[in-house]
Amino acid sequence: MNEPREHGLETRGLGRTHLHVTRLGLGLAALGRPGYINLGHAEDLDRQYRREQMRAGAHAVLDQAWACGIRYFDAARSYGGAEAFLGSWLASRSVAADACTVGSKWGYRYTADWKIDAKVHEQKEHSVERLREQWPESCEQLGDHLDVYMIHSATIESGVLDRVDVLEELARIRATGVAIGLSVSGPRQAETARRAFEVEVDGGLLFDVVQATWNVLERSAESVLRDAHRAGVGILLKETLANGRLTQRNNEPEFRTRREILAREAERIGTSIENLALAAALANEWADVVLSGATTPAQAIDNVGAASITIDDQTQSVLVELAEDSETYWATRSRLSWN
Ligand SMILES: NC(=O)c1ccc[n+]([C@@H]2O[C@H](COP(=O)([O-])OP(=O)(O)OC[C@H]3O[C@@H](n4cnc5c(N)ncnc54)[C@H](OP(=O)(O)O)[C@@H]3O)[C@@H](O)[C@H]2O)c1
């Protein structure tokens, strides 16, 4: 699996790092554990929850994503077996370290014990102790494939961006050649990202990469991300289908009108709701990687189709009307049930 990057997906440099990425990447949040908040997660997994079944399922999606040209993969310590599944896939397919780009995250511990109805699925701690514990664990699973290490869902309130011991430890990891980043979530994601881009250790900027939520319902980070891109920060977009809310599966009554608008526009340009939403994310020139959250090989194939869709001004003007205010968006997300 070490063939040169000859595939249909556009490739580019990731901000000021030395890394190269495909514009479409694959995230493993939904592939690493039985429970997740994406709308149809249980059906996607066909309720095949044994660890070997989940590993095989993740490998099948990774195989399909690779065959479609995807060369960026995103995991986290807290995504159940995601790092282990990705690591065993990279090894079993003999993928060379420079044949793809891999990111992972620290800060949450997986606590669901493979149960869907767990009381606490993930436990967050942005301390230097947690970083020192999880960095070697990530290295053990991903070895020299690990290119980007991110704080998982950094927030202003957690104080992580002011913790000198954490920032210095991250700078030490950066000095080994790994790009350092953070993911941001919640109604203050833009503010958190802006604050992070000012963080310096030993007179140099610390953060090379940010992963933020952007989709046609939640655009609040847009101007921060555009500025950061100009300044050389690598930009990764997550939750571009709003955890499945921007798919045909979304039957929320309050979404009906917007779903009809999406369906009409998708039909007009000859695509599906899902690919319209993904193509809208890809149309942001300032975004280096748009993560697909495909949970089945069929979804991976389907998602790749978004890369060949052009979003014109007419479509933009329809989509821009669908945005929610950020507080509403994140309150709705927090009500999604684990399944
Ligand atoms: N804080 C963080 O750092 C953070 C948070 C979240 C995500 N992420 C990263 O971002 C990645 C992507 O985010 P995400 O998976 O949470 O959300 P997403 O991309 O918004 O949603 C993905 C979901 O959309 C549905 N879908 C995809 N293609 C489809 C198709 N063709 N037809 C119908 N439904 C389709 C599937 O859900 P169904 O189950 O409904 O089929 C899929 O699991 C994650 O894997 C993770 O790597 C990071």
User: H/E series, N to C?
Assistant: EEEHHEHEEEHEHEHEEEHEHHEHHH
Radius of gyration: 19 Å
- Rounded to the nearest angstrom, the distance between the terminal CA atoms is 34 Å
Average of pLDDT: 96
Relative helix content? 25-40%
Write down the overall geometry: globular
Which parts are unreliable, with pLDDT below 50 for 5 consecutive residues or more? 2-6
Strand order of the largest sheet: 3-4-5-8-9-12-13-14
Strands, count: 14
CATH fold call: TIM Barrel
User: What's the structural domain tally?
Assistant: 1
- Report the sheet with the most strands, covering strand number, pairing sense and barrel closure: 8 strands, parallel, barrel
Q: Could you state the CATH homologous superfamily?
A: NADP-dependent oxidoreductase domain
Architecture (CATH level 2) name? Alpha-Beta Barrel
What does this protein structure show overall?
The chain is an alpha/beta fold and 339 residues long. The chain has a single domain (22-324), classed as TIM Barrel (Alpha-Beta Barrel), CATH 3.20.20.100. Helix content is 36%, strand content 17%. The protein contains 12 helices and 14 strands. The chain is globular. Residues 27-30, 38-41, 44, 74, 105, 152-153, 183, 185, 211, 238-244, 247, 249, 274, 291, 293-295, 299, 302-303 line the site of NADP nicotinamide-adenine-dinucleotide phosphate.
